[in-house]
């Protein structure tokens, strides 16, 4: 989708991708997180500014979450892959029902625009653009609410979720049919992700205390503009650690037409590999490859300001590309991670989600996330899903969900180019490890 088309869509009243500095709106967060813009601070183009702020906030959250996972010793030497946009989308819908400290913490961790109009219009616009369609690739994102059929939620909350996040409500019998309800939600996720994400909600995650589940699913399948010839793929060594290698299939694109966006610094090489597109928004994979085996340089470059500088420095030139084929499947129980990042109240008895039901009886029991990516000679297929499970506080069950662990020697992102929104982020330590 080129910028001219985006402008036309904006003029027509659709909220689509814009990219402005995250600091354009400097407003104080209220305890409800639902404030309107103060007099004199309304923007002339809230649609574009909202999309830009949501995109910038998502990218900050992506860097923060990556760092939180990567710095955990339990994830050392493991692959990482997740969708920050999927997690942000599900938690933004959750945030709409949060109040007080609960809202403040969630908004801070996600770097959400504090202005209600900009926040909601931003997510609506990004979703509209991502679901716009293109004949050369498949890209879609979807949200949904799954509510206990006997429990009353505020009409304002339900309407907000439907209007701005296209998250419609399906009533389920969590109280009496928890397992069939879990399977229903998981089937929705499978359908939205072409069966790439299965069993998002593990057995036992839904029970008689569950009142609401908020889900997001993202799916992408695209082909490279410059595909790799499978005949050129050979088994070669990949260094997983100093003095340690594994044999993996490495793809080669070294011909005269191997023109890519490329930049280098004293510590990094940066490569942009675009996906084929027609009228839709442009997507690409951005690879941050450290010159040494230490990933620190690549991980530090994930900071939004540094990432923007690197993207701006790319120039098209011939590059001899040697890149591994790999498939990753990851899963995370994010409640301890998100709590450590600064939103512990949402998972505690002090949680306030009165914007959902008019009471302070709900809390987040768990945030589940799964992601999948397959990179080969033809292109990339990637999917992710997030489930926020809301329980009632009367008898919160003990969380016994295991935590999956991940990490790797290069960092890769799948980026929507007009706004710079990071749709997927990851690193690969051992391409043979699924």
Automatic annotation (TrEMBL):
Where are the stretches annotated Disordered? Answer: 30-53
User: Which InterPro entries does the UniProt record give?
Assistant: Serpin_CS (IPR023795), Serpin_dom (IPR023796), Serpin_fam (IPR000215)
Q: Which CDD domains match?
A: serpin_thermopin-like
The family database entries (PROSITE patterns) matched by this protein are listed as: PROKAR_LIPOPROTEIN (PS51257), SERPIN (PS00284)
Q: Which domain of life is it from?
A: Archaea
- Domain Serpin, chain residue ranges per copy: 63-431
Query: Which is a Pfam family this sequence falls into?
Result: Serpin
Give the family this protein belongs to, as stated in its UniProt record.
Belongs to the serpin family.
Looking up PANTHER family in the UniProt record yields: GH10112P-RELATED (PTHR11461:SF211), SERINE PROTEASE INHIBITOR, SERPIN (PTHR11461)
Q: Can you say what this protein is called?
A: Serpin
Q: Mind giving the lineage of the organism this protein is from?
A: Archaea, Methanobacteriati, Methanobacteriota, Stenosarchaea group, Methanomicrobia
């Amino acid at each position: 989708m080129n910028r001219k088309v985006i402008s036309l869509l904006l003029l027509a009243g659709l909220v689509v991708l814009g990219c402005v500095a995250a600091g354009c709106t400097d407003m104080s967060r209220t305890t409800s997180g639902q404030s309107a813009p103060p007099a004199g601070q309304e923007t002339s183009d809230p649609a574009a500014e909202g999309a830009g702020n949501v995109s910038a906030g998502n990218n900050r959250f992506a860097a923060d979450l990556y760092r939180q996972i990567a710095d955990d010793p339990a994830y050392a030497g493991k692959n990482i892959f997740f969708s920050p946009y999927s997690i942000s989308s599900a938690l933004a819908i959750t945030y709409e029902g949060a109040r007080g400290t609960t809202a403040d913490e969630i908004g801070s961790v996600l770097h959400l625009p504090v202005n209600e109009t900009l926040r909601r219009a931003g997510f609506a616009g990004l979703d509209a653009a991502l679901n716009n369609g293109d004949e050369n690739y498949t890209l879609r994102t979807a949200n949904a609410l799954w509510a206990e059929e006997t429990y009353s939620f505020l009409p304002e909350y339900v309407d907000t979720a439907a209007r701005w996040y296209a998250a419609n409500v399906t009533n389920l019998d969590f109280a009496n049919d928890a397992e069939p309800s879990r399977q229903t939600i998981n089937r929705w996720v499978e359908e939205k992700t072409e069966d790439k994400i299965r069993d998002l909600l593990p057995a036992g995650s839904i029970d008689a205390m569950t009142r609401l589940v908020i889900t997001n699913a993202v799916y992408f399948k695209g082909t490279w503009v410059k595909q790799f010839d499978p005949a050129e793929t050979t088994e070669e060594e990949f260094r997983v650690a100093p003095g340690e290698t594994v044999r993996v299939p490495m793809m080669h694109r070294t011909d005269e037409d191997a023109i890519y966006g490329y930049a280098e610094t004293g510590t990094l090489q940066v490569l942009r590999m675009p996906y084929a597109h027609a009228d839709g928004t442009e997507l690409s994979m951005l690879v941050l490859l450290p010159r040494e085996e230490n990933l620190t340089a690549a991980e530090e470059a994930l900071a939004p300001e540094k990432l923007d500088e690197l993207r701006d420095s790319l120039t098209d030139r011939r590059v001899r590309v040697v890149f591994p084929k790999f498939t990753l499947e990851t899963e995370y129980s994010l409640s301890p991670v998100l709590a450590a990042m600064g939103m512990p109240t949402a998972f505690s008895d002090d949680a306030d989600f009165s914007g959902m039901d008019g009471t302070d009886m709900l809390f987040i029991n768990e945030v589940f996330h799964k992601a999948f990516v397959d990179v080969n000679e033809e292109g990339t297929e990637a999917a992710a899903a997030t489930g926020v499970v809301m329980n009632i506080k009367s008898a919160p069950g003990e969380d016994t969900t295991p935590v999956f662990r991940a990490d790797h020697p290069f960092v890769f992102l799948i980026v929507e180019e007009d706004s710079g929104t990071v749709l997927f982020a990851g690193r690969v330590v051992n391409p043979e490890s699924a």
